[in-house]
Amino acid sequence: MLVLAAAVALAGCAANVSMQPADGSNDPACADVSVALRGTLAGQERRWTDAQATAAWGDPAAVLFTCGLEPLGPTTLPCQTINGVDWVIDEADAPQYRVTSFGRVPAVEVYLDNDVVASAEVLDALSLVVSRLPADGSTCVARGDAGE
């Protein structure tokens, strides 16, 4: 009986996604955003994470969300506006993408596996929540507008 209880306890812990909190994860704006995140995103169920102001969807995790980063400075990476939020897109590890909000304080970073989820669907849904973060007035220079 003790072995079964230990196995169940370990199995429960295994479901958590291990992540690192951003330096600004304790910002109250991240708390506001975190509580508004959906239970399902692009057909993937949300999973528990072990770090403040983070979220994950899918098993294995196909979308990782972190709030509390320092806002990005100037960049040559492509930028796209979706539902009023500017996103800088790092395609270096495609089909896994790192997408970072631009012009929001604090910034949000999203890692997504485009083989599992549609990036447009993920960013469309997350933009509605991330738009709650204060805008700092800066906008992307080289941008392609979508979703507006």
Number of domains: 1
**Total count of strands:** 9
Mean pLDDT: 88
Label the overall shape.
globular
Spatial separation of the terminal alpha carbons = 57 Å
Helix content: 10-25%
Instruction: Tell me the Rg in angstroms.
Output: 16 Å
Identify low-pLDDT runs. 1-14, 143-148
**Major beta sheet summary:** 9 strands, mixed
Q: Determine the structural class based on helices, strands and strand pairing.
A: alpha+beta
Task: State the strand order across the main sheet.
Answer: 1-2-3-4-8-7-6-5-9
Write out key terms for the chains shown:
single chain, 148 residues, alpha+beta, 3 helices, 23% helix
SSE blueprint:
Layout: H1 2-14, H2 28-36, E1 40-41, E2 44-47, E3 54-57, E4 63-69, E5 79-82, E6 85-90, E7 96-102, E8 107-113, H3 119-130, E9 143-146
Parallel strand pairs: 5-9
Antiparallel strand pairs: 1-2, 2-3, 3-4, 4-8, 5-6, 6-7, 7-8
Description:
There is one protein chain. The chain is of the alpha+beta class and 148 residues long. It has one domain (18-146). 23% of the residues lie in helices and 30% in strands. The protein has 3 helices and 9 strands, in the order ααββββββββαβ. It has a 9-stranded mixed sheet. The model is unreliable at 1-14 and 143-148 (pLDDT under 50).
Summarize the structure.
The chain contains three helices and nine strands. With 148 residues, the protein is of the alpha+beta class.
